[in-house]
Amino acid sequence: MKFSFIKTARHRTFHHTPIYYDEAKEEREARARRIKSELGVEVEADNRSIEDRIRGKMRRKIKGSFDVAHKEKRRSNIRLAFILIGLMVVFYYLLMSSSEWILKYM
Q1: Helices (H) and strands (E) in the chain — how many of each?
Q2: What is the Cα–Cα distance from 23 to 16, expressed in whole angstroms?
Q3: Can you give the pLDDT of all 106 residues of the chain as single tens digits?
Q4: What would you report as the CA-atom Rg of the chain, rounded to the nearest whole angstrom?
Q5: How far apart are alpha carbons 86 and 56 in whole angstroms?
Q6: At 8, is the secondary structure helix, strand, or coil?
Q7: Domain extent listing, the chain
Q8: So where does this one cross the membrane (predicted)?
Q9: For 11, how many CA atoms within 13 A lie in the half-sphere containing its CB?
Q10: Positive or negative CA dihedral for 4, 6, 7, 11?
Q11: Which of 1, 46, 53, 90 has the least C-beta neighbours within 10 A?
């Protein structure tokens, strides 16, 4: 008999049945593609143009997000520089005031 105070996670499976699946339609489309490929009709040209348009839109999105990230990184670096300069000024002030205090009481 095995006792355990901590329960281990069980393996979970994922099973998804599509709601709008039409098997007859899939078979018709596959048959139509096969017949068109046998006859030599170009089917892929339409799909290529769609893929090219999608790729173009994705490239523009990626480039746009890269520009935004670049600007945000620059702003962050400038903010960090101002914080460092401010800390250096405060540290200098504390160092000078403590040196006066040390000289005063020594």
Answers
A1: 2, 0
A2: 16
A3: 566 677 777 777 877 776 777 788 888 988 988 888 888 766 555 555 666 666 666 666 666 666 777 788 889 999 999 999 999 999 998 888 877 767 776 6
A4: 34
A5: 45
A6: coil
A7: 23-105
A8: 78-96
A9: 1
A10: negative
A11: 1
